[in-house]
Amino acid sequence: MQRVLFIDRMRPEDAPAVARIWTEHDGTGLPERIGVVNRTLYRFHGLYVHMVEARDDLPGDLTERIFAARTDPAFVDTRDRLAAHLEPYLPEFRNLKDTRAEQFYRWQA
């Protein structure tokens, strides 16, 4: 299973609004079309941590599939609504790929 972790900044009090936006987005059908089967959101001392998991048989790279969907109306609407609640971790981050955490170790039993 492919997993992608995105990191941004978020005020803790914005978590309920962000969760509502993602709840509405997840009802659009876009996640299924991309191949997403799980989304988990975390907050940690002013950080927003967003993990996305793909179905096991997903062809291609999950990050690329998400990035390719960036012109879909459901993606655009969600991105625009989240902009009021999320800030890039670093000011120079310009797009979704910039916010992706790099996996450097994994253990699985």
From TrEMBL:
Pfam families given in the database record: Cyclase_polyket
Gene3D superfamilies linked to this entry: Dimeric alpha+beta barrel
Protein name: TcmI family type II polyketide cyclase
Species assigned in the record: Actinomadura nitritigenes
